[in-house]
Design brief:
Elements lengths: L18 H14 L8 H4 L3 H13 L2 H16 L22
InterPro entries: IS402-like_dom (IPR025161), Transposase_6_like (IPR052909)
Pfam family, one: DUF4096
Organism: Streptomyces sanglieri
Length: 100
Amino acid sequence: MVPEAPSRPQDGGRRRHGDHEVLAAIVFVATSGCTWQQLRAASFGPSGATAHRRFTEWSKARVWAKLHRLILDELGSRGELDWSRCAIDSVNTRALKRGT
């Protein structure tokens, strides 16, 4: 699901952090309420800027939607989803425009 890492024409620069390290950092930011700047590289490996950059790349590649679908499919195949609690009726509704 994660896009391939871009190739480096000269193989220079720093080593690219692994996807698992970056995912752990992204999940920490999402669940803890800390900002990207507050993320400590010593705790996860990647800096906040690196984690945010990868989060943006993955968002553009729709990784989160694909991962969500994969988890739902897996839970559904195990019979661990109760779709009756998620029922949405087929009525379309439009948001009301509010004037100033």
